[in-house]
Amino acid sequence: MAKYIFKRIVLAIVTIWAVATLTFFLMNLVPGGPFMSEKAVSPEAMAALEAKYGLDKPLGEQYLTYMKDALHGDFGQSLRQRGRSVSSIIFSKFPVSAKVGGMAVLVALVLGVPLGCIAAFNRGKIWDHIISVVATCGIAVPSFVICTFLMYTFGVKLKWLPTLGLTGPANYIMPVAALAFYPMAYIMRLMRSSMLDVLGQDYMRTAKAKGVSQQKSIFKHALRNAILPVITYLGPMMAYTLSGSFIVEKIFTIPGLGGQFVSSITNRDYTVIMGTTIFLATFMVIMMVIVDILYKIVDPRIKLK
């Protein structure tokens, strides 16, 4: 286990470096710059700003300087939010996204796993058809359509829920529902197909022939094996939802990391883009390692190499 974790850490470092390097050079290929605005900036002022932030140096030198500072945990200062460091921006915005995302993950798991099992146990019946339709809609319909539907129905027409910000408990309902709908639908599909496969295995028929109760065979054998694909999906799902959905946060005006990342791209805030990308890549890799370890805990037969 220790050897496997060490290998994963090394691979994670290489992955994060590759993502950071690719982002850095692609970002600098995009036309425009952080100091371009509607107001005309004189060439002298532009040169002074570029010199202040080191943007007048060759691209290779900028890259080496940035990576060296990043290794020490210094992601620099924001180019558009004067006086604020990238680290302070990330760690002030991430808890907001994590709170909304954590609730969405919980909702997706609590609803997705049981509904997927119900669909499998009622294969070909009305409940299977209903759950399959809901799961298909959740996967096929874009998140901005779901957000718009919820906002128009429950916020504008019925006036049951607030539509902007996170000023109270009611403000979380629509963002969490919109963020949880796709992963819940995906988990339902995974659980249904996986449970159907497990229920057809020889060991399930053997358990039934030996007189093992249906409840015991389902929870001890079927569910434990059927949930493995969901655990595989859990890593990227948690990284996506906890770091903040860009579209959901923008539509509901949530002051989280997702909305901040979109704004930094629009404003060409290079340091915030780089810092957020490295943070999200690191978070994703950590989630994947945790998922692999959970695999071993859930099914001891799996060998980690």
Task: Reconstruct the topology from this structure.
Blueprint: H1 2-29, H2 43-52, H3 59-71, H4 86-121, H5 126-140, H6 143-157, H7 173-199, H8 202-209, H9 214-226, H10 228-243, H11 246-251, H12 257-266, H13 270-298
Helix pairs in contact: 1-13, 4-5, 4-7, 4-10, 4-13, 5-7, 6-7, 7-9, 7-10, 10-13, 12-13
Describe the model.
This protein has 305 residues and is mostly helical. It contains 13 helices and no strands. The longest helix is centred in the middle third of the chain and has 36 residues, at 86-121. The radius of gyration is 24 Å and the shape is globular. The mean pLDDT is 81.
Bin the strand percentage: under 5%
The secondary structure category is: mainly alpha
The H-and-E topology, N to C, reads as HHHHHHHHHHHHH
Mean pLDDT equals 81
Q: Fraction of residues in helices?
A: over 70%
Q: What is the count of DSSP helices, taking H or I runs of 4+ residues?
A: 13
Distance between the termini: 8 Å
Low-confidence segments: none
Rg, nearest Å: 24 Å
Largest sheet: none
